[in-house]
Amino acid sequence: MSKKLVEFRNVSFRYDEDGPWVLKNCSFEIYENEWVAIIGHNGSGKSTIAKLLNGLLFPQEGEIVIGGQQVNEESIWSIRKEVGMVFQNPDNQFVGATVQDDVAFGMENRGVQRDEMQKRITETLSAVRMQDYRLTEPHRLSGGQKQRVAIASVLAISPKVLILDEATAMLDPSGRKEIMDTVGEIQESSGLSLITITHDLQEVVQADRVIVMNNGNKWREASPREIFLEKDALRTIGLDVPFVAILAEELKHAGVSLKSTPLNQEELLEDLWILHSRT
Amino acid sequence: MNNSLIIGQYVPGNSLVHRLDPRTKITIIFFFVFIVFFANNIASYSLLTVFALTCMFTSKVPIRFIIKGLTPVWFLIIFTFILHLFVTREGTVILEFWIFEFYSGGLIQGIAIALRFFLLILVTSLLTLTTTPIEITDAIEDMLHPLKRFKFPVHELALMMSISLRFIPTLMQETDKISRAQASRGVDFKTGPIKERIKAVVPLLVPLFVSAFKRAEELAMAMEARGYQGGEGRSKLRELKIEKRDIFIFILFAIVVAALLLIRSYS
């Protein structure tokens, strides 16, 4: 078993003294080099988790431990070095005047030397396949490209955890695929832990583990395949079940005996072929 | 349309003027503005004109961009020329017309003042034509650095400038989008009495402000998440460096100034 990197211990959080709890007694762990998807409908507390992880918010009860350090006012600057975050809006997180300035921003904040910065910029931009856009201004980039730059700027400070907080929500389907492929590659090659926060079940298929949030509670924690089996329950908490899963379900109702729960089109196709060759 | 958008007037290039350190350019222009007022005879004016034109030609900026930069001030240049022509009553009468008398002194004075204006505008617009806004920001931050001792927020000011420059195109795209959205709902920006048109701007400005505030909030959070904690202990990616060419230009400029002081007449 690999090492525990992030730990939530009975964490509760609310924005106001007498407001409702956004997160109620929530506990989970995330291990090194693991891809965890946190999913839930709006207001389920999933984005609050992201902000708690980065020390942008602090819990009222319980504690959060990242890489052995407890998240509090004193530790936030070293925590923020370990935890990189990509937000939803591609425009509102682009600080620099050009791509390379934006990637440098996080390193400048930490006083990294210029030669080292140049080197890291080249490396991280190639990792997200944006090396040809080094001097481009943000308004000449597409949403997907801007998000890739945002990922590069987070990678530049070599964090241990990368959080994507609905980073694909404002992109078109091709931009979305671009980002998911990029982070998949990076996670595999660099060995960092990846936390993707989303409301789209489609995006959890690549993850190792899924945490489903509902009304500030952890509702389920399981592999994507297991989660997909509970279609009706997912619907009751307001999540859209992907088309492939619905189709598979309908096929089963119609008497087509598929052998597994397909997660995507290729798997469904595979199952259908196997079925076809057997009959 | 948005792809052709250029902030400021910067014309990309790789000439000597482009490659000069922005601080060199700002310093020289600052002093040039002073010494233009020292010129007082044909020789000194020609010297400055030759200097300005040389700068212009070395920059390789197409003339049409320079003319475009001068457009708003043509009127001023011509107006001062005519004013001097009518008002100054020195020298000999060179032309009499109806109730007006034109003096030679007026003509010379008019040309001199117009030329002064022209040189000032030419040289300052060369700065913005050959320097990117971000370079100018860097130069300003660096040159204001000594003020830090008096608690002047130099780094914050420069960051504010660079963020606003970065958001100009974004907000322009957004304005465009909102105005289309409002036009599709029947808001008329282009016709009608002026009062109505001013009123029509309100549904444009309100959403723009709301979104600007939202952007500011999100950007602040993103900056914090990326470890921004003010100017202390920060390193910089972009570096300003005084090269040999900058020293060369400084010496050249010093010679021009010295020559100017020599040949100007002390009458």
Summarize the structure.
The complex is a heterodimer of chains A (279) and B (267). Chain A has 279 residues and is α/β, with parallel strands linked by helices.
Structure, described:
The complex is a heterodimer of chains A (279) and B (267). Chain A is an alpha/beta fold and 279 residues long. Chain A folds into 2 domains: 228 residues, 3-Layer(aba) Sandwich (Rossmann fold); 38 residues, no CATH class. Helices cover 39% and strands 21% of the residues of chain A. Chain A contains 10 helices and 10 strands. Chain A has a 6-stranded mixed sheet with strand order 6-7-8-3-9-10, sandwiched between helices. A 4-stranded antiparallel sheet of chain A has the order 2-1-4-5, with helices on one face. In chain A, helix 3 crosses helix 4, helix 3 runs parallel beside helix 5 and helix 4 crosses helix 5. Chain A is globular, with a radius of gyration of 20 Å. With 267 residues, chain B is mainly alpha-helical. Chain B folds into 2 domains: 153 residues, no CATH class; 73 residues, no CATH class. Chain B has 9 helices and 2 strands. Chain B has a two-stranded antiparallel ribbon. In chain B, helix 2 packs antiparallel against helix 5, helix 3 runs antiparallel to helix 9 and helix 6 packs antiparallel against helix 7. Chains A and B meet through helix 2, helix 3 and helix 4 of A and helix 7 and helix 8 of B.
